[in-house]
Amino acid sequence: MIAQTLRAVVQRSRSFVFPHGSCRMLHSGIAVNFSKAYDYDGKTKVTIFNTETDLGLMITGYSQYGFRLNNDMVLIGPISVFPRSVLSWNVNTFEDINEESLSLFPTLDPKIDVLIIGIGDQSPTPPLSKRIIEFMKKHKINVEVLRTEQACATFNFLNAENRMVACALIPPLHISYNENDILQTKLKQKELYETD
């Protein structure tokens, strides 16, 4: 039942298809892996990456105030997330992003391959992206400037792939939701009132 529901979500969501019958999906910051397990009865095995702490830190939720990680840590305000650690990031809005606020990332050892910057719920403007890309290009670090929701999903995916990735995130000012979010809320409420 769960596998069928998740497969239906995959068909309606952005999905990435991989060889050997597996499929990885990113939806609202959640990375899911489907693979056919032919051990005994051929049932589909589902792994939700965000809950596996052995894959490193992942972002499982966000709000206007901060972020929740897969180790149940709740962080308030802008943050910098790395595969195994997290720091507070001293910016208030995307307008505060400059060479000084990004100076930590080129000094890291081992060097990161990709820096993902989530700028809240605003769309990245060409001048902002250009300024950030030019600074990081000097240090030979790839960078993506995205909305926070997209940045969380991208970080989770790359981190699950064991890439050297870092993510700098600003909480969004407004939260949008979709029908899947409403369904999940109703299911959680139903579980609260169920009796054994």
Describe this protein with a few key phrases.
four-stranded antiparallel β-sheet; 28% strand; alpha+beta; 196 residues; five-stranded mixed β-sheet; single chain
Record field, number of beta strands? 12
Rg estimate, integer Å = 18 Å
> How many H/I helical runs?
4
Q: Could you tell me the strand content as a percent range? A: 25-35%
Q: Compute the separation of the termini in Å.
A: 20 Å
Order of helices and strands: HEEEEEEEEEEHEHEH
Q: Low-confidence stretches at least 5 residues in length (pLDDT < 50)?
A: 1-38
List the strand order in the largest sheet: 9-8-12-10-11
Global mean pLDDT: 76
Instruction: Estimate percent helicity.
Output: 25-40%
Molecular shape: globular
Q: Largest sheet at a glance?
A: 5 strands, mixed
Structural class: alpha+beta
In short:
Helices cover 27% and strands 28% of the residues.
Tell me what you see in this structure:
The protein is α+β, with helices and mostly antiparallel strands and 196 residues long. Helices cover 27% and strands 28% of the residues. It has helices spanning 2-12, 126-138, 148-160, 179-193, and strands at 15-17, 23-27, 30-36, 44-48, 59-62, 66-69, 74-76, 79-81, 86-88, 114-119, 142-146, 165-170. The strands form three sheets. It has a five-stranded mixed β-sheet, sandwiched between helices. A four-stranded antiparallel β-sheet has the order 1-2-3-4. Strand 3 (30-36) and strand 4 form a beta hairpin.
